[in-house]
Amino acid sequence: VLRQQLKGLSRKKSEDVLSYVSRAEILRTELKDACNEDIPDDAFIHYILDGLGRAYHAFVRQYRYGNEVLTVADLKNRLLNVEMTVQQQDYVLGDSIKQERAFTARR
Questions:
Q1: CA 42/CA 49 separation, integer angstroms
Q2: For 95-104, how does the pLDDT look when each residue is reduced to its tens digit (9 = 90+)?
Q3: Please, are residues 6 and 48 in contact by the beta-carbon 8 Å criterion?
Q4: For the segment 52-68, what is each residue's pLDDT rounded down to a tens digit?
Q5: 2 Rama sector, left if φ>0, alpha if ψ -120 to 50, beta otherwise
Q6: How many CA atoms, within 13 angstroms, populate the side-chain half-sphere of residue 98?
Q7: Nearest of 45, 73, 43, 44 to residue 59 by alpha carbon
Q8: Predicted structure pTM score
Q9: Which end of the chain, N or C, is more open, meaning fewer C-beta atoms within 10 Å of its C-beta?
């Protein structure tokens, strides 16, 4: 059951990446404690990447098709950087939409 929860884990829209990774780490620890099953970092990272969502698609593709090997700690740092970029893009996009609506309303 715990392994299935880890495999099916997905980031909630309102959830920041560190909270998401923390939930995954808790499941990983519970799995180790309950079943004495240790999930290797590379498999664990793939579970995390699978549940990130569309906003992280480019990062996930880059990681999967590249030759880079990350630790979980490295992944957290990289995801924080991606999250900041995504938030900036959302802010700029939201600002552009507001400006467009204001312009349309003035017509």
A1: 11
A2: 555 555 555 6
A3: no
A4: 999 899 999 999 999 88
A5: alpha
A6: 6
A7: 45
A8: 0.79
A9: C
